[in-house]
């Protein structure tokens, strides 16, 4: 069975934020519904399991799933909350004698190697600019606007007539960037706030109100919001459009 598992659903800082006593961070420290590690997912399939992104919570995310190793990771972009776990992964490869496979666009690989030049000693870094196939999924990536933070990549995955996309870090997508998001069974979209009031030029990820406008155009069969900051309370009913849900740690969805 093909399954999508949310290992982390938080923004760059995660929830709770160590310095913050807001209601959401306080709830996360007590009952824990709003605890959010940095955004990452695990795709399980009959032939190969792989992750998308490897943030600084990578080790904790694997431990929570009872996993001791993952051989393959697909990376969306080279920001710390998406690659901060790569040194730990490479070290795990060294200790276990397994050579990991990191898939990413070439420009992302180049940036990663400027930060962690020694990773190639334990990982194969494989460009996906011409597409890739993992776990039987045909994968296509493309650049998306990440606002003040530059760019990231989104991925569309197709297998056995099922199509879904992972777009964790984007805002204000143009028509070319939106095109691959049409005709989806599932859209996983990053939304850091319900309604972000900061000046638009300073922002980097959709809020939920803006995302709903985009979803109204795309009309995927279902949508899951991830990459959520401490502005978002998953115990609250936001009155979102039908078919939209909020991701939570460990949430599992069939991909078929």
UniProtKB/TrEMBL annotation:
Its EC number is 3.1.4.55. SMART domains: Lactamase_B. It is an enzyme of class 3 (hydrolase). SUPFAM superfamilies: Metallo-hydrolase/oxidoreductase. It comes from the Bacteria. Signal peptide: none annotated. Residues 37-227 form the Metallo-beta-lactamase domain. It catalyses: 3',5'-cyclic UMP + H2O = UMP + H(+); 3',5'-cyclic CMP + H2O = CMP + H(+). One of its GO terms (molecular function) is phosphoribosyl 1,2-cyclic phosphate phosphodiesterase activity. Keywords: Hydrolase. InterPro entries: Metallo-B-lactamas, RibonucZ/Hydroxyglut_hydro. Counteracts the endogenous Pycsar antiviral defense system. Phosphodiesterase that enables metal-dependent hydrolysis of host cyclic nucleotide Pycsar defense signals such as cCMP and cUMP. This is MBL fold metallo-hydrolase.
